[in-house]
Write a structure and sequence with these properties.
CATH architecture: Distorted Sandwich
Largest sheet: 9 strands, antiparallel
Distance between the termini: 13 Å
Order of helices and strands: EEEEEEEEHEEEEEHEEEEEEEEEEE
Radius of gyration: 19 Å
Helix content: under 10%
Length: 291
């Protein structure tokens, strides 16, 4: 199997992954509906230093109020290329005046993409370059191409590698995590059906997952299109625009503020706190298959 990837300095984002010449990644601005409207302009963004939404898009750090949009700022900033080989692309974003006004910490954020035949591994490394403890969130948001006709025919489903009896589904209220759980959308202990209506109430967000791997499959022939290994990530989100020909399977370390959030950044649920000069690293791997 031959793979080929393209990446961009903007957001340090992967914008194409082809397996034997077949594109696997949602093509952003080039993917439009019948009226010419772009479904979603991104491809494979990194979410940092928050995942999801802040209450009123504001947060309190060291007694001061800061504003930050959904999923943080990294996905909209230019990264610096470090290494660009055929099978290994690496970028870094360093704190600068434009980040300090939103997030008052000195950091280096490294994003690396590594290919090996039909496998694509995304690696995030965060270094606290400052003198104080640094809280942050991080997550992936990869978008995979699917066939719109097959979506409308309800061909697609997700399947965990193990039975899931401890899983919880978070309920979103205007992008914030509600006080009650959402209904369980699984049709058996392993499978979640994906239809054009699956995302009418925003993303499906899960925690308490037993499995480390999940596969995107088609009913006809029980074909596996991809398998993601998200070992170590406490949350997994699934999202798309209703009826759009792509699906995002998103491993997250943290999630949005709750509707009852205090607004204090360090009190956000499941935040990672990094001591001065220490580093944090995580990765997820996707194995692709052609039909």
């Amino acid at each position: 199997m031959q793979s080929q990837m393209l990446t961009s300095k903007l957001g340090g984002e992967l914008i194409s992954y082809k397996l034997d010449g077949i594109e696997k990644i949602h093509q952003g601005q080039d993917c439009t509906d019948a009226n010419g409207r772009v479904y979603w302009k991104r491809h494979f963004p990194v979410l940092f230093p928050i995942v999801g939404k802040l209450k009123q898009n504001k947060t309190i750090i060291n007694g001061r109020t800061y504003e930050m949009g959904q999923h943080g700022f990294a996905r909209d900033l230019e990264f610096e290329p470090i290494t660009k080989l055929n099978n290994f692309h690496s970028y870094v974003l360093k704190s600068n005046p434009s980040t300090i006004v939103k997030y008052p910490f000195d950091f280096s954020l490294f994003v690396t993409y590594r290919t090996d035949e039909n496998k694509l591994t995304t690696i995030y490394k965060v270094i606290n370059e400052g003198e104080n403890n640094m809280p942050f969130g991080i997550g992936g948001h990869p978008a995979f191409k699917i066939d719109q006709k097959d979506l409308f025919n309800e061909e697609y489903y997700l399947e965990f590698e193990e039975d899931e009896y401890k899983i919880h589904f978070l309920y979103l209220v205007d992008g914030l995590v509600g006080t009650e759980y959402a209904r369980n959308v699984m049709i058996d202990p392993r499978r979640i059906p994906i239809t054009k209506d699956s995302f009418n109430n925003d993303a499906i967000i899960m925690k308490g997952i037993t499995s480390h791997r999940i596969s995107l499959k088609k009913r006809t022939g029980n074909k596996t299109l991809l398998t993601m290994d998200f070992d170590g990530f406490p949350y997994l989100a699934v999202w798309s625009k209703p009826g759009a020909p792509f699906i995002c399977i998103e491993p997250w370390y943290t999630t949005a503020d709750t509707v009852k959030s205090t607004g204090v950044f360090a009190q956000k649920t499941d935040m990672i706190t990094l001591a001065p000069k220490r580093e944090f690293e995580c990765k997820y791997t996707i194995e692709f298959f052609n039909e």
